[in-house]
Every structure is written in C-alpha cells, then in structure tokens.
Amino acid sequence: MSIELRKIDHDNFYEICQLQVAQDQVNQVDSNAISLAEANFMDFPWFRGIYAENKPVGFILVNADTYAGKFTLWRFMLDQTKQSKGYGRKAIVLLSSELLHEFGASAIYTSVVDGTDSPKGFYLNCGFVPTGNLVAGREIELCTTLEPQT
Questions:
Q1: Which of 14, 45, 69, 94 places its Cα 20 to 30 Å from the Cα of 148?
Q2: Global pTM value
Q3: Interatomic CA distance for residues 81 and 11, integer angstroms
Q4: What span, in angstroms and rounded, lies between the C-alpha atoms of 48 and 6?
C-alpha cells in the first residue's frame, strides 16, 4: 500500500473537499472545506492531503506552532470508503516523520471527545497517550512522542 502526504493547492483542492467521513462521524469532524477555510485564520497551519495509490483518501490539518514548539493535530479524516484499511495508521506515521524532519518536532498533540464513536481508540492504537489535560473543558488531550528513525 503506497501512502503519501501531499500539499494541497489549486489542482487538488476540490478532490480533497469532496472526501466525506461516515455518517456517524459527521458531528465529530468538520468538512475538509471548512477545515481549509479555518486554516486561513490560524497562525501556523500545516495541512496535507492523504493519498493512497495516487488517489485522495484523507486530510490532515496541524497547528504547527514553531514559536511555542507545540504541534497539534486539529483535523484528521479518512474518507468513509477508506476507513479500517490501515491508511490512518500509515498517515499518522508519515505525519510524525514529516513534522520531525521539517520542524524538529518532538511530540504531536491532539484532543478528542470521549464516548461512543470517539476516535480515542484509534489514537491510542497509534501510540498517543492521555496527558491528563482537558481542552476546551471537555476534550481529552492526547500526545505521542516523536523519535528519529535509526
């Protein structure tokens, strides 16, 4: 399975915006169009399309705050037809590698609402651990440490 993270530009913007999560996830993550619009108002946006076999399968948006040295995964989605096939885990590995190499990041943070249909289990399986902090008063903060590959 060939997975890569690609910059989003005029040529692939529309196909990334057409990806959709499963119906029971609609209230868990904003659409890619909204996420890309929000990126315009972030101080440190870093976003990529997830591609498998040269076709778009997902989207990643990170707040790459290089001043504070904190890298927060704000949005992560896989198209409803591409979930539970290993793409998500591979994309997290690629994300970790790219943030480590591009910025020297030492950790990635994210947050989730716990409960039914929560992506918490996915992140735990990808090596994230709870930090004990709450984000926005209700989301559990998770973190994974990045280490250079030897």
A1: 45
A2: 0.91
A3: 22
A4: 5
Residue 106 tokens read as 């030492």
Measured CA distances, 9 to 6, 15, 47, 99 (Å): 9, 11, 10, 19
Contact between 44 and 73 (Cβ < 8 Å): no
Give yes or no for residue 48 having a pLDDT over 70. Answer: yes
Cα 99 to chain centroid, rounded: 12
Bridge pairing between strands 3-6 and 55-65:
unpaired
* Alpha-carbon span 10 to 106, nearest angstrom: 31
pLDDT of residue 30: 82
By residue count, the chain amounts to 150
pLDDT 10s digits, 116-136: 778 898 999 999 999 999 988
pLDDT, average across residues 97-109: 95
Residue 91's H or E segment, with its range, is: helix 87-103
The first and second tokens of residue 37, run together, are 């619009």
Query: Using CA of residue 120, residue 126, residue 131, residue 133, what is the dihedral sign?
Result: negative
pLDDT at 150: 54
